[in-house]
Amino acid sequence: MRKRKSICIFLMFIVFVGSLTVNVGAISTGEYEFNVSMARATGRFSVDIPGNAFFTADTSFHLEAEETVAINAVYSPRSASMDFGLIAPDGLFYSMRAQNGSFNETIEIDQRGYYTLAIRNNSSSDVSVSGFVTY
Q: Where in the chain are the domains?
């Protein structure tokens, strides 16, 4: 019984680790083939943003050109005007407008460097925001 339980736990661990990587391609050179695998990270956020204020995450993450960042968030009140995006290595805020209390977009990076999640509340009222960012 103990051996069976250990095997189940081991298999669950293998499935978990396998779900953290994404196969991004294979290169074939003659008789050799190289598989490239890249780990993805997900961060959760929950923040209250005052009216007409700007929120930036405490940490940045390094990205290569052509990588993607997915932002999936909900906010309340739904009528608030919100912009979600990233502060790029050049210091500019690249954003997209959210609608009806939710935001679910993927942004493709065109410049290598450190990026920071940022959210702008364009409304005069306080807004509660929560979600995930995957990079």
A: 2-36, 41-134
19 has a pLDDT exceeding 80: no
Instruction: Give the Å distances, CA to CA, from 63 to 7, 66, 109, 116, 127.
Output: 37, 9, 7, 10, 29
Retrieve residue 45's tokens.
């956020």
- Between CA 114 and CA 64 the distance in angstroms is 9
Residue 71 — φ and ψ, nearest 5°?
-120, 125
Token pair 């940490």: residue: 59
Q: Which one is predicted more confidently, 57 or 27? A: 57
CATH of 41-134, one of 2.40.160.40, 2.60.120.380, 1.10.10.10, 1.10.3470.10: 2.60.120.380
pTM of full prediction above 0.85: no
Single-letter residue type at 59: T
pLDDT tens digit sequence for 34-81 = 444 445 678 999 999 999 999 999 999 999 999 999 999 999 999 999
